[in-house]
Amino acid sequence: MTVTWEELGWERLAPGVGRCRLPGWDCTVGLVVGAGAALMVDAGSSLAEGARSRTRAQALAGHRVTHLALTHPHFDHVLGAAAFAGAQVYGAVGVDAVLGSRSGRAELRADAVRHGLAEPLATEAAEILPVPRHHVSGEWTLDLGSGRQVLLANVGPGHTAYDLAVLVPGDPEVVFCGDLVEESGEPQAGPDAVPARWPEALDRLLSLGGEDAVYVPGHGAVVDAAFVRAQRNALAARFGVSR
Q1: What is the mean pLDDT of residues 202-230?
Q2: Taking a C-beta distance cutoff of 8 angstroms, is the pair 229, 206 a contact?
Q3: Average pLDDT over the chain, rounded to an integer
Q4: Helices 119-127 and 102-114: crossing angle, nearest 10°?
Q5: Cα separation of 131 and 140, whole Å?
Q6: Sign of torsion over alpha carbons 124, 9, 72, 40
Q7: What tens digit of pLDDT does each residue of 76-92 get?
Q8: Where is the Metallo-beta-lactamase domain (predicted)?
Q9: Taking a C-beta distance cutoff of 8 angstroms, is the pair 89, 70 a contact?
Q10: In sequence order, what DSSP letters do the residues of 64-99 get, joined into one string?
């Protein structure tokens, strides 16, 4: 029996493309379905959240998740990654300095606990967190079969030093932005943000997707190019960045 995106709590954005807003931190995970292959965008904040996302994604795809793209190294986007056993994991070049180091994993764990994740769950997920084996320095095209191609683009730094965007061509084109764009609140600039480069990263996003694309924030509702441009200008004013 075929299930629909809506029946599983997902939002269909284009044929074979959708996303789910996870509870707790309103973090988005995305799915792109190909022929015998499927790409997840981000993994959630815990192993249990990652496993639930994987199970629902595989029900929608009709086969297993074969690829996982991590948009940036924050706990609510990466700590579910170990639930995607066997998937090829992609991240911006250099992200292994965070995800693969003892100090980086300790900070992810501590940040998760500070935000309310139970300490045993945060510790378990951080200890077995997979390090991306595919490092995107510019752009990387994934072939998911039957003409379905996805572009991974290293558009940062901005929200972090390692921001990866995912462009899905089609009608409409869909751009998964990670936390470079947020709709449900003001963009968060933590100690690992690079404010002087953030507006430039959003310029790259707009160049990738264009005026008619659907832009998927890391948190919040889907937005359009005008929203991304307004957020770009607000960030430039906030951090004193000129064109």
Answers
A1: 98
A2: yes
A3: 96
A4: 150
A5: 18
A6: positive
A7: 999 999 999 999 999 99
A8: 26-219
A9: yes
A10: ---EEE--S--HHHHTTGGGSTT-EEEEETTTHHHH
Written as one string, the DSSP assignment of 213-224 is: -EEEEEESS-B-
What pLDDT band is residue 242 in, cutting at 50, 70 and 90? confident
* % of the chain surpassing 70 pLDDT: 99
* Beta pairing, strands 67-69 & 88-92: parallel
- The confidence score (pLDDT) of residue 2 equals 80
Residues 119, 42: Cα–Cα separation, whole Å: 21
Distance CA(163)–CA(195), nearest Å, equals 13
Sign of the alpha-carbon torsion through 124, 125, 131, 137: negative
- Is the pLDDT at 1 greater than 90? The verdict is no
33: Cα within 13 Å, side-chain hemisphere:
19
Q: Residue 16: phi, psi to the nearest 5? A: 75, 10
Does pLDDT of 164 surpass 80?
yes
Tokens of 134: 């595919």
Q: Give the three-state DSSP class for 165.
A: strand
Structure tokens at 14: 């284009």
